[in-house]
Amino acid sequence: MDELLTINEAAKALRVSVHTLRAWTLHRKIPFVRGGRKVLFKALDLEKLVEDGVQPTHTEGRSGQEIHK
Prior knowledge:
Elements: E1 4-5, H1 7-14, H2 18-26, E2 33-35, E3 38-42, H3 43-53
Antiparallel strand pairs: 1-3, 2-3
Helix pairs in contact: 1-2
């Protein structure tokens, strides 16, 4: 089973405020799991969120291929 993080742990891992993380869950911008009244986050989902948010460098095109000058 994937490691589950509390909202405080997830906010710390993502380096955002708890308020921001609550807003993201409210607007369904981040995957989460309900555990009764608790909101929990899968560590692998957070890692994927970060990986998917990485922008290409100025030497890479949108597809991740290098641009030749």
